[in-house]
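Q: You know discrete backbone vocabularies at least as well as I do. I have my own habits and do not want them to colour yours. No explanation is needed for now; the record alone will do.
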Amino acid sequence: MASVQRVPHSFQIEEITATTPTETVASARELLLEYGRFVSAQPGAARFCYGSLEKEAARLPQSYTEQGGGCLLAGVDREPVGFVAWREVAPAINEDAWELKRLWVRPQGRGSGLGRVLTQAVLDRAVAAKRKAVYLDTVPAAMGAAHRLYLQMGFVSCAPYNDNPIEGIAFLVKRL
């Protein structure tokens, strides 16, 4: 049975697993697809593959657990408002690391600290799993608040670690 973690501001964080109720997984899928629609609408995102994201969403949580990761759904008063995922970084990095993926907070949850809570939840899991680093990529021009949050949380610029085709992308890492 999946555990629900209570965090400040009455956020509920739940890890999506194979035993998570169907309606909860459906909420996580919808948040992931909202993220994809947002990214697709940004200038320079023409090569973002929404179809690939739809396949990823359809296979939740396996699309992340099969890659050594997982995903979290966040709620406020039982209303789903946030999502984040992680997976192992490509072996080319030669490091025991995860990649933080798909951080998304619905407009009604923005400014509440939920993005920080979700990011910290992944970092805490990475430390518990004895990972050495967490990588991510973001587009500061389109996701300025997220980029600022990552920098405030100790992420720093790094060399590209994947072949993300989106223009204006910034690659970041946080050593653990």
User: Anything to note?
Assistant: Residues 22-40 form the longest helix (19 residues). The chain has a mean pLDDT of 89. Residues 4-131 form a domain with the Aminopeptidase fold (CATH 3.40.630.30). The two ends are 29 Å apart (CA to CA).
